[in-house]
Amino acid sequence: MHRWSYERFAVEQKTLNGLVDRFLAPEIWQKSRGPLTDEERAELRETIAGLRHPRVIEELCALAATHPRADVRLTVVEGVEPFLATHPAAREFLVWLLGDDEDFVVFSAARIAGRNRVGEAYEELLHITGPAEAGLFRSTKPVGIGAAVVAKAMDGILGAQDRAARLETEREHARTGQLPRATALGEHWDYDPENLPRPVPDGMVLIPASEFVTGIGMDDVVHPLYDVDDAVPRQTRYLPDFLIDRYPVTNREYDAWAQSPQAAEHALCHPDEPEDKDHRRGIIGDARFGPDHPATGVDWFDAFAYLAHAGKRLPTELEWEKAARGENGAFYPWGDEFDPDALRWFGASFGEPQSLEHWRDTLSTFDERTPAVTTVPVGSHPKNVSPYGVADLVGNCWEWTDTNFFTRDRMKPMISGRPRTEWATAEETSVVIRGGAWTSMREQVTTYFRGKDLFTDRHNEIGFRGVIR
């Protein structure tokens, strides 16, 4: 059963409810209940280790963080240790416990942070003992077991053998604000590559593990109408096996889900999604966007939720680019030469653009009737297929990714409870979109062009597809 699937969520939610009934409900501990026995602690850790769905792990950590019993908090953080590499909630819970009132909880959390090189814990620990330089040649306050345990944990996080070795890394951190890459949150991997679903699920394509070319060289940039400096340089990267949808999600597929009870209960929606969000498409009444056309008029949260219920996620921009370009870095899925008949772009929608200003003026004429044809059914252009057999990666609609435009890291939305004026122009809300759309110029429908948009916008030009990795 796929770790991110709705079915898996339902099964693990029952498991979590069982843990709550037996160990985690605060009411149990308000009675005369003794500490957890060694057998109970072992059972709790083993059950937690069997969980896989990110939302269930998140709920578990939230329950444990404020639990009144220290032995429960400690056992849960021990149980989620295997998830620290890739689960933000597990890391947040661990950091929270570094401020616990009970010494043995703090000591254990610090040791776990050091073993797993949890970068987010470094700043919290730094507040406790100060930098290595302060205590390298003489003892400093605080003193005692706690200071020694914290110092050793900080050595572990920074990959240093001792306080002296940590000194240089801390100086680099003070200068750049950056910790070693190994301390960062890793990627959410749906499966280890060797355990991807076999046979390949219907409607998906296997992208085999390999090195591949990404970006472009300066020699490739010839009088561009758009700034493409962020696609430079041309470089070689590596990705393991992953699966990607052959076509973008269609309106028919998306609407069936958006009108279902699953969408209404928001069980697998992003935790930062606006409260009571309506997932139905914003342009559902426009007949030009037909049932077999790509699902547009959806924002990043809509795409995230739909794919989560299907056991998938949005691709990173590197995954998208490899699927589109192949190993050798072609400028278009079919090769290096632009073919105006191979895709749905501005020229097919409105006619060949005469200039940048003409393009803008023409787009401003869009209304309920103009143009008569917008998107077209998926698979309408047989030539628009990548070397792996993935279709419609350029033109027709842009595609949401899970990559922040500025940091190039995975998206980490944090807008809940904040006014729109505070986050609408913030870098954290800018998502990379790829592939160009029915409104795009030829420069935008290349496999290397990086578009961006606000992740809460619902445009009739942006759709999506899913991956499993």
Protein architecture, described:
By secondary structure, the protein is α+β, with helices and mostly antiparallel strands. It folds into 2 domains: 6-183, Leucine-rich Repeat Variant, CATH 1.25.10; 229-468, paralog of FGE (formylglycine-generating enzyme). Helix content is 36%, strand content 8%. It has 17 helices and 9 strands. The strands form 3 sheets. It has a 4-stranded mixed beta sheet. The model has no long low-confidence stretch (mean pLDDT 88). Residues 202-467 form the Sulfatase-modifying factor enzyme-like domain. InterPro entries: ARM-like, CTDL_fold, Sulfatase_Mod_Factor_Kinase, SUMF_dom, SUMF_sf.
Can I get a quick summary?
The protein is of the alpha+beta class. The chain has helices at residues 6-24, 26-29, 38-49, 54-65, 70-79, 88-97, 103-116, 119-129, 145-158, 163-176, 251-258, 261-265, 300-309, 317-325, 346-350, 356-363, 420-423; strands at residues 204-207, 210-214, 235-239, 242-245, 398-404, 430-434, 451-454, 462-463, 467-468. The chain contains 17 helices and 9 strands.
